[in-house]
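Because discrete structure vocabularies remain unfamiliar, we reproduce here a specimen of the format, pairing a chain with its fold in token form:
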Amino acid sequence: MSTFRVTRAWLVLGAGLVLWEIVVRWLAVPPYVLPAPSAIVDSFLDHPALFLSGMWVTAKMSLIGFGVAIVIGVALAVLMARSAIFEELSYPFLNIIRVMPTVAIAPLLIIWFGRTGLPIVICSCLIAVFPIIVDVTHGLTSVERDLINMMKLSNASEFSILTRIRIPNCLPYLFSSFRVAAPGAVVGTLLGEFIGSKTGLGYLITVYSAQLNTAAVFVLALLSCLLGILFFNICVWAERLLVPWKTVVR
């Protein structure tokens, strides 16, 4: 991104914040309806340790959920790429999980596992795992058939074909799925915290919403956005480092 585009983006953002501040003060909008940007900053400065500790808890649970999603998603994708029968049997169940709202599953997880970290990790994993399964399966099965035939003519084993052909071909698809799954893991963690947690950004949002402290809710929403953006950019940086032959289009 050029310096001009970055400068223009910051100027537009600054102008929007100034306009927001002026309109709220001019119309005397109640703070519980729409707080001014200055009130949002003051709310953060009143309790920075509380907000940042909640952000750390959400980040930690999101990382765990994302890691579990990677392990499960890659394992299922390999099995689906190797076995057409397994793919046909598993896809209906995966589609059911995909279309079922996580917010509807979360209360059941609380009943089954209690108010522990496990339901939150499961919620995070449920949202993150599906794009990994789909993209990795596509990456493993989209190899040119001629390459596979050449390896087989050389008496290469299925393991050699997997490690030398399929996995290198799959890496761009893997990191592409990460860019979708990583922010999704943050969303899943927040959903789990809304319902069954006593810490984290999601829990704090429910507390301050009940108190009509809209400025604090804005702070927590912004921190959640920053966390999702951070996860996304880490995946982009990792892709540039580990898959340098692929151009990342953003």
In short: The mean pLDDT is 85. The chain is about 85% helix and 0% strand. The first helix runs from residue 3 to 27. The chain has two domains: 1-30, 35-246.
